[in-house]
Specification:
With about 200 residues, the protein is mainly α. It folds into 2 domains: about 80 residues, no CATH class; about 90 residues. It is built from 9 helices and no strands. One of its GO terms (biological process) is interstrand cross-link repair.
Length: about 200
């Protein structure tokens, strides 16, 4: 039955999600639905996956006031295993504008454990599009501490380097906004991580 998702326009897909009440369905059902999506052939288009990401997860993530349930995390991890790009484009751009404590923790967990390297870079680029804040510094730390093969989180990106233009933007942002973080321990950790991981590229 889910093959109908490949034949819907974005507006039809939004209507179908509303009719099925997917944004408020019980979380165990959400896990099953996301697993069914992975078995769907052909894969969803980028646009359809973006619509589903918004309908399935945006309201749930924005309303978090405590750590997400294991069912919600399982559903997100399942969805992101195939559709992480549209997920990040849709959710991160909204969540990162004014993240709460639980939203920040969720983004950090996704960066550290679920997202592929290109999506980790996408998250960082989205962070750098908004004014840097104490709430967003842990996300930057999570990107820089991405575990790949090194037991040392500061050296982890030696296997997963940021592209030069993104590194330049990160360094420029840190330099420009440093006066606002003179007493921030998290900011100091971020600067230390950048200087450690990219010591040969940062003068």
């Amino acid at each position: 039955e889910l093959s109908i998702l490949n034949n819907c326009s974005p507006s039809q897909l939004e209507g179908l999600c509303s009719f099925l009440q997917l944004s408020t369905c019980p979380e165990p059902s959400l896990v099953h639905f996301c697993r069914w999506l992975l078995a769907l052939t052909p894969d969803l288009s980028y646009t359809s996956a973006a619509v589903l990401a918004e309908q399935l997860f945006l309201r749930r993530v924005l309303s978090l006031t405590q750590p997400p349930s294991r069912h919600l995390m399982a559903a997100i991890a399942s969805f992101c295993s195939k559709y992480s790009q549209p997920f990040c484009r849709v959710l991160m751009s909204v969540v990162l504008r004014e993240p709460g404590a639980e939203q920040t923790k969720l983004v950090c967990e996704l960066v550290e454990e679920c997202l592929e390297p290109q999506c980790v870079q996408l998250v960082l680029s989205q962070v750098l599009e908004v004014p840097l804040s104490e709430k967003l510094l842990p996300v930057v730390q999570a990107v820089l501490g991405r575990q790949v093969s090194s037991p040392n989180p500061l050296l982890a990106l030696s296997q997963e380097q940021l592209p030069p233009e993104l590194l330049d933007l990160l360094v420029l942002t840190l330099c420009q906004q440093a006066p606002a973080f003179t007493s921030s321990l998290d900011f100091a950790k971020v600067v230390t991580a950048v200087l450690t991981v990219y010591q040969g590229q940062v003068s």
